[in-house]
Amino acid sequence: MGFKRKSSRVEVGRPGRLHRGSFSAPCQVMNVSETGVRIQTRLFVKNGDVLHLSIELDGGRQLGCEIQAINVGSRQFGAKILSISPEDRERLAHILDDHMQNRFLRG
Q: What's the CA gap between 105 and 107, in Å, rounded?
C-alpha cells in the first residue's frame, strides 16, 4: 500500500530565502501544500532542522513560515510547516485555490 499525502502539492517554482538565526541563503520553492513545501537549496540542512522560510510572491509580497526539514536529499528537501500567521495562511490558501481553479478550467 502506497503513502498518501494529506493534501495535494502545487508546483510553484518561486524564489525564496531560508533563515537560520542571523544566517540566510537563497532557495527555490518547488512546490507547496497546506502542510508542507519542497525546497531546492545549496544550504546544508539536516533532518529535523527548524528554519524560517520567506517565499517571494507576485507584486513584491512575501509569504513567511517556520518549517522543519524532513526527507533531506543532496540539493532538495521536504519540510513541514510548523507555524504560519493567519494572513500568510490565507495567502497560501489563495495560491492553492487559484491552482485548482486553473487546473479545473484547463480540464
A: 5
